[in-house]
Amino acid sequence: MSAPRAGFDLAIDFGTSFTTTATLAGGRAEVLEIDGSKYVPSLVCLDEDGNVLVGRDAVNGAAMAPDRTERVPKRALVAHEQVLLGSSTVATVDLVAAVLARVGDEASRRFSGRSPSRVVLTHPARWQPGGLELRRLTEAAERAGLGEPDLVAEPVAAAQHYVRSGSGDQTVPDGGVIGVYDFGGGTFDTAVLRRRGDGFALAGSPGGDAALGGEDLDAAFMEILAEHAEALDADAWTALWEAEGRIRERDRTLLRRDVTQAKEALSRLPAVDLWVPGYDDELRVTRREYERAVEPLLARSVAELRDTIARAGTTPDALVDVYLTGSTSRTPRISALLADLLGHPPGMREDPKAVVALGALATVPGSVSATQHVRLPPRTPPRTQPPAEPTPPLTPSGLKVPPVPADGTEKVRRPDSGPASRPAPPPPPPSPSVVDEIAREIAAIAEAAGVADLVGTVAPTVRGGSTGEATRRPLVSAAEGVGTAIGTRHTPFPGLPPEIALQVLREGRGELGALGRCLTRLDEVRERLATL
């Protein structure tokens, strides 16, 4: 028997809402506590000095500076190169690196300053080797000082933990298939896996819904709370969400936190009471009314699992089991719906949040379960595209939260003083030959990208009295329509909004072959239209 390796193994499940870290040393695996919790909020906040705050510090900072907060850096990592936090532009890779560095430093401190012998990062099954997402995640790990990590798909890690912590490896025989239902705070993922020796491999394409997560259940809970609050005092509820100032912003932030905790408590309790700022009495929400409100969302998730099973070429009754993971999976109604699908209750541990990080530690380097290492290309300067705005916080429908200025004061832009001048005359319209040439190019791009059936034709004409803007407008609309169609048909994973999918495709165009060339041609058309 070989001697155990010195040091420790480190696994990080960087989630949309929470990050979980596990360590393995001396044959003992455990979940790492940071700031008194096993689950570190993934949100990050930029302080006034430009430092990226993580964990409890970020939560406290977010209450006072929502404009400097990115609530879901994992989602931002996929969609954007940079985000605008306050007045500062920050690379999304650096935001993720800050979270990874914090948990990595805490793990090293736990082991007297030693560095880990092995680092494992988990990722959604849809993130494939060579793709933009894994390249960015790997770069974030390197910037965090973690070196080159092993990469393991989240459902594979979850399956490893279930079989090794259950009744033994024979629970899932070699060649047997299992399902994984991962309902997290910000996203929902499904997968069917086939047992192969000491690991698991995907059977069929993974599924899920990037636009479905625990936050959607939070929103449903919030709407119930709004109904009760408005029945007592509608003006107080409106004042809570529309009033300006840091005190009210803190009230809203704390209420959002209480809503998430109350939603999770309904997994154990028949009803919960919440204190809402502006009301003397607590407001009660029952499990029955909550489950009624979220039933369509949960049914949607089960339907997605059913589709994933079908794509794997099998049926629900042929699965050995379906394993639950993710914070939202503890919702009792989910187990009931899945039991109807499977004919028996699904497998779930007491702590579904931690199964991915713990299972990642059980994967064997180089086995069928491990994703290959990602080699980073030479670093290139970021594109000049404008940074994205941070993800906005949860707000009840129909109410708009006013922005909070960084210094608490409102700034008014005044026009430059000077002599009045007449507006410049509108530019002349382009020639008919130029219009026809651009229209043909847009149609050719749609055809080459395989989306001609999703867009209409464009044939603008130049008439007497037409302005340049009037002629340019239908061409711009046509180019945008082709972009939307490409994002819809060629989305990297189901459920991603077309505009975000298009951005992800653009940033990875170098590896998309003919589709990448179509995206470059489309951008050239847009640049040409901007100069007309």
UniProtKB/TrEMBL annotation:
Top-rank lineage group of the source organism: Bacteria
Biased composition (Pro residues): 378-395, 422-432
Record bears the keyword Nucleotide-binding: yes
Keywords recorded for this protein, A-Z: ATP-binding, Chaperone, Nucleotide-binding
Segments for region (Disordered): 369-434
Protein name, entry field: Hsp70 family protein
